[in-house]
Prior knowledge:
The structure holds 2 protein chains of 2 kinds.
Chain A: H1 8-19, H2 28-44, H3 60-63, E1 93-97, E2 100-101, E3 115-119, H4 120-123, H5 132-135, H6 145-153, E4 158-162, E5 172-178, E6 186-195, E7 200-209, E8 216-225, E9 230-238, E10 244-253, E11 258-265, E12 270-279, E13 285-294, E14 299-308, E15 314-323, E16 328-337, E17 345-354, E18 360-369, E19 375-383, H7 387-395, H8 400-413, H9 422-435
Parallel strand pairs in A: 1-5, 4-6, 5-7, 6-8, 7-9, 8-10, 9-11, 10-12, 11-13, 12-14, 13-15, 14-16, 15-17, 16-18, 17-19
Antiparallel strand pairs in A: 1-2, 3-4
Helix pairs in contact in A: 2-6, 7-8
Chain B: E1 2-11, E2 14-24, E3 29-33, H1 40-48, E4 53-62, E5 65-66, H2 72-77, E6 80-83, E7 90-94, H3 95-109, H4 117-131, E8 141-142, H5 148-162, E9 166-170, H6 178-190, E10 197-202, H7 206-210, E11 215-220, E12 223-228, H8 231-239, H9 242-247, H10 249-255
Parallel strand pairs in B: 3-10, 3-11, 6-9, 9-10
Antiparallel strand pairs in B: 1-2, 1-4, 4-5, 7-8, 11-12
Helix pairs in contact in B: 4-5, 5-6
Amino acid sequence: MSEPQRTPFVDSLLEAAAQTSLPGSTIGWLDAARRENLEAFAAAGLPDTRMEAWKYTALRALGQRRFAPGDAQAAMRDVDASAFALPGIDGPALVFVNGVFRADLSRTEALPAGLSLLPLSQALQGDAEPLRFALSRHYREGGDVFARLNAALAGDGVVLRVAAGAKIAEPVHLLMIGAPAEDALAWHVRHVIELGEGAELSLIEHHASGGDQQHLGTQVADVVLREGAKLRHVTLQDIAASSTLVRHNQLQLDARAQASLYVLELGGALVRHDLHATLVGDESRLDTHGVFVLNGRQHVDTQMAIRHQGLNTASHSVWRGVADQRSRGVFRGAIVVAQGADGSDASLSSKNLLLSGQAEIDTKPELEIYADEVKAAHGATVGQLDERSLFYLRSRGIPLTEARAMLTAAFCRAVFESLPDERLREHLNHQLMAHLPSA
Amino acid sequence: MLKIENLHARVEGKDILKGLTLTVNPGEVHAIMGPNGAGKSTLGNVLSGRDGYEVTEGTVTFNGVDLLALEPEERAAAGMFLAFQYPVEIPGVNNTYFLRAALNAQRKQRGEKELDSMQFLKLVREKLKIMQISDELLHRAVNEGFSGGEKKRNEIFQMAVLEPKLAILDETDSGLDIDALKQVAQGVNALRSAERGFLVITHYQRLLDYIEPDFVHVLADGRIVESGDKTLALKLEEHGYAWVADKDPVLTGASA
Lengths: 439, 256
């Protein structure tokens, strides 16, 4: 094996690790897991584009950058969390500023029965044993470099559990805010989420920025749905166009569990989202709905991998991408129907729109089937606005820019139609419209 | 109102219109008839400003303005309307939303006050009544899943709401059965007025049984080769387009 390059990026994060005392550092197994992941991170360094998972996302520029260790001021920074309130949503909320939990900005009083919601930093002060399985994971895939980094350096995040049978009516709002600091810094959050048998939860994962900054944020989330549990997971990513965010979300569905994911990617200079879902149990069901809208020099890469493992499982995915100016969107949707996963039903649609000659979108649906009696369909397109439709609108008096905006909005809008929560649906559509090139 | 003089136009390097001259005054209904390939649809497309049609000679003025210098949306705002032969389906764009955006965009370009949703709804209700169209069409996406007849009626309904000064009907009768044809013609007739001109482009005479023209022109090989009143359409129906070609020395020479 060749010696990995020691980049300023890796050096600065190793220095950060040496300087930081993380919550839970006295827990032996946790400390060991952090060390091992850090060593693996240092040994492998950043992957290059020869690696399939990073083929379209070059990390060379990131490798030359240095990040300060965690934000010592995070607990005191003046941040207006109300700027990120979602209309009509006033249930439980956990707010993190530069990766640090902020009780003063959160709403954790009077939690509904069956919901347990704690920041990881607090959970580690109590009995950490229930977290052992999730937090002592090793990320062995070569491409999991940021998950490794996160495992080594995350000291906060959310530990959320819904008791068996509990149906939580109000959505839980997780808000990660990147706040401007003296230096560009790296922050990390680690979420552990579990829905017990038959439990129901609506979750909002919200990434925002309290101003212009060049931070690197990483997030790892483990989400487990026990038998018959139902999750609705809405992600709104609207960070500053100068910052970097890498998310690694892992989802496990036991028998008859159901998850509906809605993802809206709007912000960021460099954004990477790995979404790995495994339909472990029979008759489990996943649907994903995603839209990215990019402009400037944004680069947003979504890598979705869905694995059908149980009998008669279903996954349906609809993704739309719009890239304007010199932006670049990447979408890879890989569906694997494992041996024995008979009766699987999988579909994936990725349609993309280029609004400028300099924009680029790379989309790649992949389908691997090792089972029998499988229904699978996938399709991907990259194109431009339909000239005939544009002319039709213009011939009725609608100016070109407005006609383009109208058709672009129409292209994306259908994706969130199936989101049952009207408040969230309206909000996502509103944010979407605000980011589309306007008339 | 519309003055076309010696219009030459080219599509993909091929000359289609070769010196077309025509004047339409307010209140007049002109029918343009002609065989396939005569340049009928090219005329509609050139007038509405579609890309890919190159005007190589001649002028078109619309109420004194150089029409060919205007963008398609400016032509619409100036009062020109093209009822498409093949209306486009636009999934995701609601019909009512589209129509209100169109009307307000035109009003804005003309410096008029935009209509709020209440005023617009009132206008739409009025027009629905005249057009005898069910309001169910309004709630759907523009032309999506519409039958051939519904698409054409939707074109006429748009015309009713936008109230153009000049309406061009591009083979509006194509693909319609007789009942749908009658409905569409009824709509058009309801919109005839002393201020509004019509240019009805058609291959067949039967549409003109229901929309009675003041003038009939025969278009052949890119020029108007014969003009007359509505009886000309009947003669054509009886004798076919060959009859006109026989009378035209250029065409006779060309086909010999």
